[in-house]
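[worker-b] picked up task from shared queue
[worker-b] task type: protein-ligand structure
[worker-b] ligand name resolved to zinc ion; SMILES cross-checked against name lookup, match
[worker-b] sequence length check passed
[worker-b] input payload:
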Amino acid sequence: MSTSTTSAPAPAETLPIRTVPDPVLRARTRPVGPDDASEVRALIPRMLATMYAAPGIGLAAPQVGSKLRLAVVDLHPDDQPSPLVLVNPEIVAKSEETATREEGCLSIPGQYADVTRPAQVTVRYQDAEGKRHEITGEGLLAACLQHEIDHLDGVLFVDHLSSLKRNMILRRLAKEQRERRQKRGDDDF
Ligand SMILES: [Zn+2]
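[worker-b] inference finished, payload out:
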C-alpha cells in the first residue's frame, strides 16, 4: 500500500534509437491489430519519451526496433507539446504540387539534405484507442507525415535523393561512426 500523494506518473523510459545500417530500418512493418493492444499501449509513451529526449519531431516504430505500423509526431505548435499518435497510418491523397525542405533523421544522425515531396498530404490513421481519424497537412507537417510513413515501409529520406548524394551521406555517416567508435576505444585506456 502506498500513501504517497505525488500524483505525477513516472516518466516513461526512453528506448535506444536504431541507426543505419540496422536492417530493422529496411523491414516493412505489419498493421497493428487487436492482439497488439497491450504492446502498443506500452510502446507509445516510450516512443514519445524517446522522441522528446532526442530531440526529434517524429519517430516511427522501426527506429526503436519494433515492426508495428505505428509512429508519433509532435511539431510543438505554439511551443506546447502536442503529440500525434499514428496507428496504421496511410496516405490517402497527395497534392501534385511539390515542396522542398531540408530533412534529417534520428536514424541517420547528423546528416541533412533537401528532399522534394508532395506539398500536401491527407493521412488516414487510428489513435491509441483505435478511433479512426483523417488529417491533412502541408508545410513541415506534410513532410514529417510522409517521412514517418516512409519509415513504416522501410524507406529512408536518403532514398529520395540521387544515388550519388545518398552514397555520399551514408559514407560520411559511416566514417563519423567509425571515428566515434575509435575515440571511445581510445578513451578506454
Ligand atoms: Zn527518420
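[worker-b] attaching auto-annotations
[worker-b] Strands lie at 58-60, 70-73, 84-94, 98-105, 108-118, 120-126, 132-138.
[worker-b] releasing lock
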